[in-house]
Amino acid sequence: MIAQSIFLLSGSPVKKSDIIKLILGDRQTNQPGESFIATSFAPTNIALCKYWGKRNEELHLPMTSSLSIALPDHGSEVALSLCDAEQDQVKLNHELILPSSKFYQRLSSYLDLFRTEKNERFNVEIHSTIPIAAGLASSACGFASLVLALDQLFNWQLDKKSLSILARLGSGSASRSLWDGFVEWHVGERADGMDSFAEPIHAVWPELCLGLLIFNTNEKMISSRDAMRETVETSSFYKNWPQQVSQDLFCLHKAIEEKDFELLGKTAESNAMLMHATMRDAKPSIDYCLPETIAAMQKIQQLRQDGLPLYFTQDAGPNLKLLFCENDVAMVREHFNVEVVRVFSSSMTLL
Ligand code: DP6
Fold this sequence. Notes:
The chain has 351 residues and is an alpha+beta fold. Helix content is 36%, strand content 22%. It is built from ten helices and 13 strands. Strands 1, 4, 5, 6, 7, 8 and 9 form a seven-stranded mixed beta sheet that branches. A four-stranded antiparallel beta sheet has the order 11-12-10-13. It has a two-stranded antiparallel sheet with strand order 2-3. The radius of gyration is 20 Å and the shape is globular. The relative contact order is 0.15.
């Protein structure tokens, strides 16, 4: 508490490194295990109520709370250890990543935050079971798994709330990728963001399914980070967003509590549509849809009119995630070439 007030009284904007100091305290001098290889996994998450817009770019503090579901077995595995090389060694799905790439630079500058006085270099091997940068939240599970691995390597033994804040400093949506099931990231109100972290919602919904409808796995033209900044800065429509999010969160909590699938589906779909509407209103306009995306949306609406309880959500990419229940898996497969993910698979842990 004392340390937190010192930062706020100092008057200068809070930096990521201030937050690391605050969270790690004396642990900041922990030396990583020399030949130890830390391994971890974090699931990707799909927001039913999106995080769209920051109130603080440095700390990735959101304008609103958001709510997601994790996809069990779909995410990022990391093996992290020290290495003798001059610079970090990064491999993604067994391929060496060049230091000149954006991917490497983003990862390495995040690792800079955690190097001790010895200025150690890391060996990072990432295995991602989802396409990178295709709007499937690969950065969310990537940073979350990295934080879990750092916690092991340096033996910090931090609680999940602190890990969620550290993951947020890598990518906002990563704060939600430390749990299975439903997760809510609280907006918080503090300038240092110490109250802006995620927590699990303890509810199980075994019938809930999500279908990955992939049209394109190429890297997107504009990152979600840039798109959300441009939307906040230039879309006059964005002013409606925070109020709509409050209503959507209320409806999603109700839907989860009462297992009301229709309420869940229609709230998630309209939330995603509104997020994309704010982007279309940015100057210049941002549109992630491909013709296939629009055609699939229309088909979903038609199927719904014909009685199939099927909804979609869309992130910063052309792919759709379909929402439906176990009873309708066969019907959905008849109409779409989707990978079906059972959100609450029996092996998962909710704590
Ligand atoms: C559309 O978490 O990738 O997927 O904090 O700038 O790294 P940064 O953004 P990021 O944005 C995710 C946006 C979204 C919605 C969501 O996951 O809530």
